[in-house]
Amino acid sequence: MKIANIEIPHFPLLLAPMEDITDRSFRQMCKDFGADVLYTEFVASEALIRNIDKSLKKLKIDVSERPTGIQIYGHRIDAMVEAAKIAEEAKPDLIDINYGCPVKKIANRGAGSGMLKDIPKLMEMTRQIVNAVKVPVTVKTRLGWDSESLIIDKIAEELQDTGIQALTIHGRTRSQMYKGKSDWSLIKKVKDNPRIKIPIIGNGDITSGEEAQKAIDDFGVDGIMIGRATIGKPWIFKEVKHFLETGKVLAPPSIEEKVEIARHHFFKSIEIKGERTGFFEMRRHFAIYFKGLKDFKQLRLRLLTSMDVTEINEILDTIKERYKNN
Question: N or C: which end of the chain has fewer CB within 10 A?
Fold first, then answer.
């Protein structure tokens, strides 16, 4: 598959952009396990044009991650165009426009999936961003605002005409948030449109190789973007690829392997962000790496409150030893 001039393996797996999740350390973990295309956390256009340091740091991309896209969101066309230019200076492989985030504080301001309520503005914003930058522009969006406005099959062709190079569709409306089951039937309708020439990437509820295979067989998408299922499980890319290649389910990592994956992630995090930030930002990942272990409450509490590297290492060693036969 190609996105503009970017060569991507056949039927690629993409890491979805997720706020406070897809930072550099997590992206590198996912890349190590086989993710083909990565995206940064989504970045507010207003924060970029005001040079807010936290947002500017989100633009940093390591050569080992590529191809990587920077995703931006906002509701003002001029700010989004300027933000795209700033993002381009960071030399991403792609710039992605977020028309899918359902979070109230974003959507209700007319950004993210809120743009689905003003299609003329959405198209004009997309067109101006495509014309403002030289790197390929992609879009991630949803089926529509709610069940009464399922419009993706109607606007996909128009989005293509603005000049975008790929379209990712999450199989829910904004009103659904992340509830209910993702509906891929409209994604298939877009893909089956003979006038659609750009890659169509499906997103929503892919948690296993079997589901990925079903997406290929039943809906014909060009690739799959995986989001929430990667949190605390970056090896999902390896599992999915193994199933697609062999038709067999790959055994999950042992507790010993999970400990070493978590430890590696932890040290990447503090190396990139410094100890204080690295500790805080690893806590959401630690909580899920070891989810489901029996009688884990006390160790979990220590893992999520410690600010000492030696202690974290000792806790991880204790987990490895205590649960090695699980």
Answer: C
Q: What is the CATH number of the domain that holds 160?
A: 3.20.20.70
Among candidate residues 245, 266, 284, the one where a domain is terminated: 245
User: Which residue's structure tokens are 């009688």?
Assistant: 295
Question: Same domain, yes or no, for 218 and 135?
Answer: yes
Regions of the chain where pLDDT drops below 70? 326
Instruction: Please report the beta strands in the chain, taking only residues with DSSP state E, as ranges in sequence order.
Output: 2-3, 6-7, 13-15, 38-39, 43-44, 68-73, 94-99, 137-142, 166-170, 200-203, 223-226
CA 115 to mean position of chain CA atoms: 19
Asked if residue 280 and residue 160 are part of one domain, the reply reads no
Q: Is 40 exposed, middle or buried (0-12, 13-18, 19+ CB in 10 A)?
A: buried
State the pLDDT at residue 10. Answer: 84
Residue 101 is among the residues annotated as catalytic for this protein: yes
Q: Which one from 8, 70, 86, 101 is the annotated catalytic residue? A: 101
The structure's pTM equals 0.94
Instruction: Let me know if residue 314 belongs to a domain.
Output: yes
Do 239 and 269 belong together in one domain?
Answer: no
Q: Which tokens hold the place of 250?
A: 């790959």
What are the beta bridge partners of residue 6?
3
Q: What is the pLDDT of residue 219?
A: 96
Residues 193 and 220 in one domain: yes
